[in-house]
Amino acid sequence: xxxxAKPAAAERSERQLDEQRMLALxxxxxxxxxxxITASRVxxxxxxxxxxxxxxxxxxxxxxxxxxxxxxxxxxxCLTDAGLxxxxxxxxxxxxxxxxxxxxxxxxxxxxxxxxxxxxxCLDSIAEAGLLQNALRETLGKGFRSHDIExxxxxWCADCAQ
Length: 162
Fold this sequence. Notes:
This protein is α+β, with helices and mostly antiparallel strands. The protein contains 7 helices and 6 strands; from the N terminus they run ααβααββββααβα. A 3-stranded antiparallel sheet has the order 1-3-2. Strands 5-4-6 form a 3-stranded mixed sheet. The longest helix is centred in the first third of the chain and has 31 residues, at 2-32. The two termini are 33 Å apart.
C-alpha cells in the first residue's frame, strides 16, 4: 500500500511545483508587460500558461469557481489587451483563450480544432518558422503585410481519434 502512495504523493508534489512555477511566471510576465498585478490576473494567466490547449471562458470559470464571471472576463480582456494571451474565435461562436503571445502585438499563428470534443490547440511552431508569412509573400507579393492570421485545421485530436 505504501508503494502506491509514494507515486501519488510524488505526482502531487510535482504538480504543486508546476503550479508554483506557473504562478511565478505569470507574475513575471505581468510585471514585464507593465500590467497591474492582481490575484485574479495571476491565477488566470498561470492557468493559461500551464494549459496544453486553449480554454473557453467556461473552462476557466469551472477551474476557478470562486472567481465571479465579471472578474474573469476583465482578467481575460486585460491579458489579451496586454498581449499576454490571445483570443481565438471559434466557428461555434465561443471564444477561447491561450497564453504564449507575450509581447506580440498580433496573433500570427494557426490552430488545430478537434471537431469531436471542440478543443483548440495552437500551432506555434508554424509561426516561429515563419512559414505562414513566407507563404503570404510568395502568394501575394512583397507589398502585402498581415496583421492577424485566422488559420484553422480541423480534424480529430489524439484522444478522439482512438
